[in-house]
């Protein structure tokens, strides 16, 4: 039978028979309890509830007995768990003791092995250190040998080069020049390899290279003047000797400068000659090298540097008054020539630095200010609306656009001038465009200033006719707007497209300007109509004077229109003639004239109603207070009120004719005519109107034709 170790309450260890507990456990487990033991594991366990449920199945005594049985079951289970855990702990402790013994043994073995290893490798370490020391000494010895050998070769190469210099022939040949190049190469290479060079050797080296520089410069000049057979080899020597700058200066002085000669008084022609000579020299050298079989690609950087550096030097030496402009036309010509020269230069990408130096020699900022400042000053001087100036005594062809104010003329001239080929430079296109917008903004500002000064603030003299001013300004706005777009289409857009730019966004700027001009023109039409109507209204005050002409004056019945009507007609004709004089379009003239006449007719109708009301009141009073009246027909023919009515009928008929010719509603005029016509004279009035003299008919016909 299997036994197990059990811990007693006294701390002793006893052997427990597993079979006994197993049989008891099985017996207890198989017994039927009067309650459900799972209820004890619930989180919401309540004693009262447990007892109530259990008493339904058993008595208190049975519940007590079953609880004691269940307690014994739980105790036995806990004892089994404790014994199992203790057994595992004892086994783990035994294993840990064995592991510690193993680790201690391994540690002792490793220390012993490492100690033995260090003792065994000490000899090897000493041998390696000895070998390393000897290797270092050997390397230092070899290095010293190399230095000495290099100095020996340097001295020999200097001697060889000195012999070559001493035996230099009058005319060099390919074979000798190649040996000379080899000698120079050896000297330069061996001198560069040496870390420490003796002072005497260094002095000899410098003397030899100085002689080499003089010889190569002489040979280079002679070869470039000749057939350019040895230029490539000579430039190789120049590069080795690091004397490129000296060679460039020599070529500039002894070849290029001699070909160009002395400067001329006309700097524009002289610059043309300089550029032409530079291009010719390059072309000639290219042709010579092609004939001799030399590679121009290897030589062109040096020759281009010589040619372009000479251009930079010439600009600094001879063209100081041009590059910082004092004469704008000369500056423009020279800069355009320079841009053409740069644009036509072969392999410009390889020489971009020097080409940029040539272009940057020209002070474009000063040129731009000189060209534009005069226009800005003139615009600023004329910006004051109180000193507005009309252009007088200027004869123009019929097809030419009319300009009536100096400021408008100056704006158009400014835009035409700065975008003309005589002034425009592609490099300054951004500045010219900004200046264009600034000029257009000043024009809008000038227009706004005139509107505020003459219309809003009313600072003009009383006798000043504002409508004439705005008629001329209206025409100028049309011309400036049209000419601005004309300049854009003919000059600005092509120049912008040369830079591969889309003109849409630039056109939007001009569209904004055109929109603002159109808004100003609408305001001017309103101002003209209001001012003209005010002038006509003063004349139409003559309607109120009709009663004074016929009351108690014994004047005969009227047969013609009133003088104020003739004056009104003449004034309306004056407005139309003035708009024609300022070259308005027929459509705009008709529109504004119609507005003026319509407003004038409204004023006339109001005043005529007042006169009729006065006449009617007078007639009523007379009929009331007269004791004895004449027959109606006789009274209507001879009374003063009837004469006033006849005069109003003539004037109303004249206005009706003009209104009909302008296609203006005349119903209110018809009402006034019916009101002014006495009931007894309904048939006689048309014949009276037909009897108006031919002069009135002619005048009416003229007005109708003009409208």
From TrEMBL:
The keyword DNA-binding does not apply. Its main location: Golgi. GO terms for biological process: Golgi organization; intra-Golgi vesicle-mediated transport; protein transport. Residues 360-651 form the COG complex component COG2 C-terminal domain. Signal peptide: none annotated. It is a peripheral membrane protein. Residues 33-106 form the Conserved oligomeric Golgi complex subunit 2 N-terminal domain. One of its GO terms (cellular component) is Golgi transport complex. Keywords: Golgi apparatus, Membrane, Protein transport, Transport. This is Conserved oligomeric Golgi complex subunit 2. Pfam families: COG2_C (PF12022), COG2_N (PF06148). Belongs to the COG2 family. The keyword Translocase does not apply. It is found in: Golgi apparatus membrane. It comes from the Eukaryota.
